Amino acid sequence: MIRVAVVGARGRMGSHVVEAVRSASDMELTESLDAGDDIKQISKDNTDVVVEFTVPAVSLGNVLALIEQGVDVVVGTTGWDDDKLEQVREALSHAPRADQAVFIAPNFAISAVLADYFAAKAAKYFESAEVIELHHPDKVDAPSGTALHTARAIAQARQEAGMPAMPDNTQSDGGSRGQVVDGVHVHAVRLRGLNAHEEVLLGNAGEQLSIRADSFDRISFMPGVLLAVRTLAGGGHAGLTVGLDAFLDL
């Protein structure tokens, strides 16, 4: 049995993770913590893998503390930038266990992971590319971590292919062109009734490719969460891994 602790257990995502772990035949829920609980309750004596689903303001501190406590961590909280990722790498270099692992997922939905992968594959064949992400208005970050990950993957693919900057003659748009991530425009929509959605638009003269992923319910993220837990528990992924695509046969 894989001993699993959940941090953020009473949140929108964390509560689903708790139920998914309880329903998994190969897992045991050992700790269920939320705001105000002492994270030091979690240790390598009672936990194999921690699933951390909180908010960006506290996630880094939680992950660094859990590394010190000698447990592997699966992180679903968004808001990770290069500086925060480097702090995790530095902490892992001094971790209690040489094989300790942290996994951070911009998105756990298989559809979103595949859309991200397909977009990166297609990017070098199109002159233009933009990313639109759509979420419920209770989401605290914008653009989403998934959209940032997608934009960076598109930009890297274009750079490796030696492509020039995308055409855009906009002079002054007052912010309507969205955030620019490594040269890729990313637009965020927050609308009641939505859950989690992303569309990548790629265009050439006379043609367009649309790649879209829609998650209508948070249960769509649970297979990815459990896959990450099982993968870390199985070993062989020491250090920091970002993106569920690393655990899929792509």
Can you walk through the features of this model?
There is one protein chain. By secondary structure, the protein is an alpha/beta fold. The chain folds into two domains: 132 residues, NAD(P)-binding Rossmann-like Domain (Rossmann fold), CATH 3.40.50.720; 107 residues, Dihydrodipicolinate Reductase, domain 2 (2-Layer Sandwich). The chain has six helices and eleven strands. It has a six-stranded parallel β-sheet, sandwiched between helices. A hairpin with a 2-residue loop joins strand 9 and strand 10.
Summarize this entry quickly.
With 250 residues, this protein is of the alpha/beta class. The chain has helices at 12-23, 56-68, 82-92, 110-122, 145-160, 222-233; strands at 2-7, 27-33, 49-52, 72-75, 101-104, 128-135, 179-181, 184-190, 196-204, 207-215, 239-242.
Largest sheet: 6 strands, parallel
Taken together, the total number of domains comes to 2
Number of strands: 11
The CATH H-level superfamily of the largest domain is NAD(P)-binding Rossmann-like Domain
**CATH topology term of the largest domain:** Rossmann fold
Helix content: 25-40%
Order of helices and strands: EHEEHEHEHEHEEEEHE
The structure class reads: alpha/beta
Overall body shape: elongated
Which secondary structure elements does this structure contain, and how are they paired or packed?
Blueprint: E1 2-7, H1 12-23, E2 27-33, E3 49-52, H2 56-68, E4 72-75, H3 82-92, E5 101-104, H4 110-122, E6 128-135, H5 145-160, E7 179-181, E8 184-190, E9 196-204, E10 207-215, H6 222-233, E11 239-242
Parallel strand pairs: 1-2, 1-3, 3-4, 4-5, 5-11, 6-8
Antiparallel strand pairs: 6-9, 7-8, 9-10
Subunit structure: Homotetramer.
Keywords: Amino-acid biosynthesis, Cytoplasm, Diaminopimelate biosynthesis, Lysine biosynthesis, NAD, NADP, Oxidoreductase
GO biological process, one term: lysine biosynthetic process via diaminopimelate
